[in-house]
Write a structure and sequence with these properties.
The complex is a heterodimer.
Chain A: H1 4-19, H2 24-32, H3 37-60, H4 70-94, H5 101-110, H6 116-132, H7 136-147, H8 158-179, H9 186-213
Chain B: H1 7-20
The chains are: A mainly alpha, B mainly alpha.
């Protein structure tokens, strides 16, 4: 069972997660017009920028985050932004979309100039997230856990970050037990996705480089 | 344009916007 404090933490993070979304106008743009590769690149870049802004808004609502050292806040966001974006995009790809939307989005990403060797692991990740059939609460908590990773480069006060991450991990663990009593491995599987995210993050810099070149 | 900003700049600006509020 979740304690009152844990339930409050869950509600708070979930509410913040639901509130901060990429503006619908921008999301619509992705589906509507036809673009050249160059315009596609710009649009996806604009989308990524918006994503980061939304992520910062979400993060500052995670209880305790704003009490961290200012430079540590930046180090955490810088270290996790790409992973949080992959998680959010995975959710978009997993959700039931109106007829044809997933195909249009996939086509757009495939025609953005990113080389195939980076695209395949990304779509594999989306698929592996899809298989978990995650609830909105799990997405919100996992995103918060990703952001509050104490081992990011340049974080000075790792213990302060750990103190924020641990209660969120415990809420997720209990939530998984409650929601998936038949799947004792569910929590471990969610944490396993964090490892996959690290790999995607690692490749991201190379991916950007290849994207720029082409 | 936003597309020319680095990740850290975008984060700093977004956090600063928060402080101005």
């Amino acid at each position: 069972v979740l304690s009152q404090d844990q339930q409050a933490l869950l509600n708070y993070i979930l509410e913040a997660y639901n509130k901060h979304r990429v503006p619908p106008d921008m999301a619509k743009k992705l589906l509507q017009e036809q673009f050249s590769t160059e315009e596609n690149f710009l649009l996806l870049t604009e989308m990524a920028t918006s994503h980061v802004q939304v992520l910062v808004e979400f993060t500052k609502n995670i209880p305790g985050f704003q009490s961290l050292d200012h430079e540590d806040q930046i180090a955490l966001l810088k270290g996790s932004a790409v992973e949080a974006m992959f998680l959010r995009s995975a959710q978009v790809f997993t959700r039931k979309q109106p007829q044809g939307h997933t195909e249009v989005l996939e086509e757009r990403i495939r025609k953005s100039g990113i080389s195939e060797e980076y695209i395949t692991p990304m779509f594999n990740f989306y698929k592996s997230i899809g298989e978990l059939q995650m609830l909105q609460e799990e997405h919100a908590l996992l995103t918060a856990i990703t952001i509050l990773s104490p081992d990011r480069p340049y974080v000075k006060d790792q213990q302060a970050v750990e103190r924020l991450q641990e209660p969120v991990l415990e809420v997720l663990r209990r939530f998984c037990k409650l929601q998936h009593p038949q799947e004792p491995q569910h929590f471990a599987r969610l944490l396993g996705r964090l490892t996959e995210l690290r790999t995607l993050n690692h490749h991201h810099a190379e991916m950007l480089e290849s994207w720029r070149t082409s | 344009p936003a597309s020319n900003l680095g990740l850290e700049d975008i984060i700093r600006k977004a956090l600063m916007g928060n402080m101005e509020e």
